[in-house]
Fold this protein.
Amino acid sequence: MSILISLPCYGGLVNEKTTTSLFNLGKLLVRNNIDHGIMTVANESLITHGRSRIANFFVNNTEFEYLFCLDADVAFQPEDMLKLYSYQKPIVSASYPMKTLPIRHCYELYNPVKLCGNLVKIGGIGMGFVLIHRNVFLELNKHYSELKYFPGLNNSNYPITEKEYHNSYHYFAEMNKEGKYLGEDMSFFHRVSDIGYDVWMDTSIELQHIGSHVFGK
């Protein structure tokens, strides 16, 4: 197993709880001799572009087997990520609460409901805690040639390579579905579902979504 951690963090901001989770995950990966890296994009205000940029860096400039999509405001136990890997699925995820009261979660259950142990098949979910195999992106390249683009100048710490310039795809471009624009996460999952991939969610993993709350009237 090898993994690249994808961490978009606009303004360079990563929550303290997320940082602690990453630190503990790094120790766990080292103990288990798992090759890993991390890529952050700090100055991309469009999350659609930030996620696609990291995915294209992953595909073109690394040999990592999996991309682990993590948001900068999600806290987790390090074993959670290894649990996702243990399922050996092309796409597997876990859900975190939305920043609302009362607590609600954001995911679409597949209809009819399909279960596999702790896993449930879903139509889509927020991208904050998702493990994706390299082959998923390679298959998207084959089926969605219209997503190919030539990346321009960027302000990240990772200059565009020649391979990226000639082989970049906007995997997270917003999709117009029946007259409504889907978010970058749901757009991605609709595309992978359309080319035959199942998307799974582990119902046993409990994550935290860090935000702010105003107490009082």
User: Anything to note?
Assistant: The chain is about 30% helix and 25% strand.
